[in-house]
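dumping this here before i forget
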Amino acid sequence: MAGRDQASRIRLDSGDGYLECDPGGSLDPVSKRIIEQLQQDGRRSYAGIARAVGLSEAATRQRVQRLIDDRVVRIVAVTDPHAIGFHRMALLGVKVDGEIRPVAEKLSALEEAEYVVICGGQFDILVELLCEDDEHLLRTVDDSVRTIPGVASTEAFVYLRVAKESYEWGTR
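structure:
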């Protein structure tokens, strides 16, 4: 059941507790604490999260499911690329002639593309590529990226070492 209270917040009945968010997309403090718990350990039990945030286990389970259903969070396994055979990562800057979105859609369809961003600045699109080795990266750039209609130029920034990778940025 959804309705607005005087503070112009939307209350979504999620069973034992309400998931509150304002029309701008802000989450209530309990939902933020749940997200922080999951960012620390995506396998944390509902009972453990419930203790940390002060809800029942059932209410916590419902809130987590609502966060998943509303696409606020995704719970995934993050792997070490080197451990599973991907020894070359690169950020590829792409300059586009013409419409950017169709090029971004084609880049997003590449198996090697892990992250595709339309951006401002020197490049129109940034693509994070995950490849087995240098030869695989070269084939991807030459055969798959540069052949996309609208791609004017590319510049590869090869990762030598990832100094920081974090998924605990909180909810601010």
